[in-house]
Prior knowledge:
Elements: E1 3-6, H1 16-25, E2 30-36, H2 48-54, E3 61-67, H3 75-81, E4 85-89, H4 96-105, E5 109-114, E6 132-136, H5 152-165, E7 170-174, H6 181-188, E8 192-195, H7 197-200, H8 205-215
Parallel strand pairs: 1-8, 2-3, 3-4, 4-5, 5-6, 6-7, 7-8
Helix pairs in contact: 2-3
Bound molecules: 5-O-phosphono-D-xylulose (5SP) and fe (ii) ion (FE2).
Amino acid sequence: xxxxxxSILSADYVNLERDIKKVEKAGxxxxxxxxxxxxxxxxxxxxxxxxxxIRPISNQTLDxxxxxxxxxxxxxxxxxxxxDLIGVHFEATPHIHRALQMIKSNGAKAxxxxxxxxxxxSIKPVLYMVDQVLVMTVNPxxxxxxxxxxxxxxxxxxxxxxxxxxxxxxxxxxxxxNNETVKSAYQAGxxxxxxxxxVFDAKDPADRVKAIKRATK
Length: 217
Ligand SMILES: O=C(CO)[C@@H](O)[C@H](O)COP(=O)(O)O
Ligand SMILES: [Fe+2]
């Protein structure tokens, strides 16, 4: 069964604690926190203050997706705030190896993220050192977009590289995930599913977390 990472981007910010408790109780192992800087992506979302505020009210893995240009500048701020896992985009820095090293040396799990237009080939040199790879299944910047099915092939390639080299990283998908789109990704080897609008735009977010899990039984 896939692990579920609800993205608070689509939660009710005024009732954030209530929404987080609902998905945690429903069995969501991760909480996905989308940090957007208005440069790497057009939107601006929230920063380390949110991670610090959420840390004491959730036992979930706090999964920080940094959509930030030159993320090295902020890694320590986010690990100090309580992030368990930090994702940095291959496209956001000329120093992806250094950025991943920084995450690990600050005590968090390190994730490399690739946009839909970036190949698996380009991140091969850092696969030996990561705890998780995030395959974007939409172009980053906004919730509520449509899953790009062509990305499933990248999951297959990553899964094969895992097998061939004895790597243990998780493979996460992010964007347009629901109880239907998750199926092919799971079959290809995805182990963690981010879902924002599908979970939080629903009347009952707990049901949606369970529906994603059921679809991958
Ligand atoms: O990183 C992002 C968007 O850039 C995501 O984490 C979104 O929050 C996913 O939203 P949905 O596509 O599930 O609505
Ligand atoms: Fe995300």
